[in-house]
Amino acid sequence: RVLGPSARHKVQGFVAQLPGGGPDCVVSMRGTVELANWVADAETWRVSWPPGGATWCDGCSVHHGFAEAYADLRLAMLSALEDLGCASAALTGHSLGAAMASLAALELRSSSGLAVAPVYLYG
User: At residue 122, does pLDDT exceed 90?
Assistant: First the structure.
């Protein structure tokens, strides 16, 4: 299932179900391409994350643009993982997509019950 492009930062990704063996789904986040992606990359101040806090990441903060970009695709990603019946997922991303995949992996491992591995990040 295609994720995005989002309205604000034009980020994109996909969730796909894999045939047999290993993780049964993959989540991939696209790297910086659009001007709006570069804007997200440049929003470097830190913000509390996850929004509203969480016991699994008490006092955490992340790069504002990365958090906003991930938030743009988060609900669609979670919905796709549920709709596809994913019990496990591999995550990957490049550049801005790597930042989003990092946040997704942390959240999914900590609060979804989904088995998340491997995680491949580039650039």
Answer: yes
